[in-house]
Amino acid sequence: MKMKRQNVRTLSLVVCTFTYLLIGAAVFDALESDTESKRWEVLSDMKNGLVRKYNITPEDYHMIEIVIIENKPHKAGPQWKFAGAFYFATVVLAMIGYGHSTPVTVGGKAFCMAYAMVGIPLGLVMFQSIGERLNKFASVVIRRAKCYLRCETTEATEMNLMFATGLLSSIIITTGAAVFSRYEGWSYFDSFYYCFVTLTTIGFGDYVALQNDQALTSKPGYVALSLVFILFGLAVVAASINLLVLRFMTMQAEENARDEDKEGSRTLLPLEGHGGHRAHDDQASVCSCNCLGNKQCEGGALLPATPRAPISLRRRDSIATDLIERASV
Description:
- By secondary structure, the protein is an all-alpha fold.
- Helices cover 73% and strands 2% of the residues.
């Protein structure tokens, strides 16, 4: 039995995704595995040296490890005053999840779950709406630029919008990397890595801003700048992703419409070529659903009407047009 095109596409996406995962795992293994082993050997030698030098028991050493790990968040200053709490709430709403600070009380954990259940959908809708407004603004700028350059077509295409939002995303990331490199003391590459991980909501937590020199309480301007970077940057990235998703939806809608056209043509084929009274009855039986299409009915007879595009083709064009317009409306 022949598989439908939609099923073949879904199966192909699953296979490609798992293949991509396998390739990624192999590359990360080759790049990071040896370094991990070397770091572990160095740390083990340092641990053994400290234990021998100061005659530390395994229990005392384990207690020291706990104290150091638990003390790490407090080195950055208070995390749950209003500024730090607002930073945490932003991270939750944006689904970044650095893990630099987490609620420890039962009430805090319960409220975090309830807060996320409402805040995450709200944030997604907000970023989507802002992204659409940005696409609308970009389409206006592109049309005016094309008019100024006297181009043959002045409409902003999907590729134009994707290029514009991609360029704006690159500017935001590179500029943010320069700012964080200065204030956090990171290298530019590490700052660029932090900006990318943040705006794609990966949020590993190996690099987190506002965690040095009591920045959450002593640098309100830097805190505001960091929050604006996160929110505006996520909105721009959402605009880019919105265009990609709409492009995929347009292609899928067109393919579904073509499949429906083929199935409809195969269903109507037996009605053609039959003669006599049987053919007339068949045509009369489907007249009620074709009177608004390619034929008109008058007194039981079938009269040719003005040719019109098949309903599925008109629906495909309307769907594609609607999805494309949503990228800039």
